[in-house]
Amino acid sequence: MSITLSQLDPLKYGCEDLKIKLTDDKLQQFIVYYEKMIERNKVMNLTAITELQEVIEKHFLDSLSLADRIDLNQELYILDLGTGAGFPGIPLKIAFPQLKIILMDSLRKRVVFLEEMIETLGFSNCSAVHGRAEELARKAEYREQFDLCVSRAVANLSSLSEYCIPFVKVGGDFISYKSGEIEEEAARAKKAISILGGELTEIHKFTLAGTELSRSFVRIHKKKKTPNAYPRNAGIPSRKPIL
After folding, report:
1. Contacts of 46 (CB under 8 A, 6+ apart)
2. Residue 210 has pLDDT above 80, yes or no
3. 54: Cβ contacts below 8 Å, ≥ 6 apart
4. pTM for the complete prediction?
C-alpha cells in the first residue's frame, strides 16, 4: 500500500516546530526516499528502523533538528560523513535544496544506493563519495573545503573529531549528532579537538520533536588549520583516539 501525504503529518508538524515549511512536493520526496530505502533494506543493511512513524521521528526529524542551531537557508557547502542510508544529508537536502552536500561513506553498496537516490530525487549540487575519511581528508578537493561537517556516525567524539575536523575550513563548524548524555565524552575529547584546530563552542541538549528522546548537538568551531599529521592512517583514530 502506498503512503499518503497525510501519513507524513507528524513530519510536517515536527518541521513546523523547527520553523521548516515542507511543501507537498518535498513531502512526496520524503515518501519516495522512505519507500526506496525500505525496499533496498530487504537486501542490504541500511537501517534497523523501518516503521514509518519511527523513521519520521528517529531519522527524518532527528536529521532536520539541525535547523534549530544553524541557519540552513544560506548556500552552505556541507559534508555528511559516515552518512549510511543518507542521514542527515538527504533530509537536509530535501528541506533546503539550495544546500551543496557531499554524502560520504566507506561502504560501496551504500554509496550506490545514495547515488540512485540523488538521481531519483532530482538533486543538483549533491553527490555521494565512497572512501575512508582518513584517506579522503588528505585529498585537496576535500581537505578544509567545507563550511560545515555533520555526522550521526556512532563513534566516540575524539575519534569522530579526527575524522571530521580536517574537512572543515577555518571559520567553519563540525556538528556531531549525539544522544542526550554527552558531557563526559565531550570533556575527554577536548584535547583532540584542540590539537585538530577546533574549539568546543556548544553542547545543545534537546528533546526530539514529538518524542521523549533526548538528543544533543556538539558544536566544534574550526579556529586554525589541522596539522598535516591528521587524520592518522586508516583505523588508528578509532583504535587509538587522541586522549
Report:
1. 37, 40, 84, 85, 110, 113
2. no
3. none
4. 0.96
Task: Render pLDDT for 100-120 as a digit per residue (tens, 0 to 9).
Answer: 999 999 999 999 999 999 999
Letter for the amino acid at 211? T
- How much is the average pLDDT of 182-197? 96
CA 74/CA 243 separation, integer angstroms:
35
For residues 32 and 173, give the distance between their C-alpha atoms in angstroms, rounded to a whole number.
Answer: 31
What secondary structure does DSSP assign to 2-68, as a single string?
PPPGGGGHHHHHHHHHTT-PPPHHHHHHHHHHHHHHHHHHTTS-S-S--SHHHHIIIIIIHHHGGGG
Q: E strands of 89-194, at which residues? A: 100-105, 126-130, 146-151, 168-179
Give the bridge partners for 176, in sequence order: 151, 218
Domains in the chain, please, with CATH?
71-239 (3.40.50.150)
d(CA 140, CA 93): 24
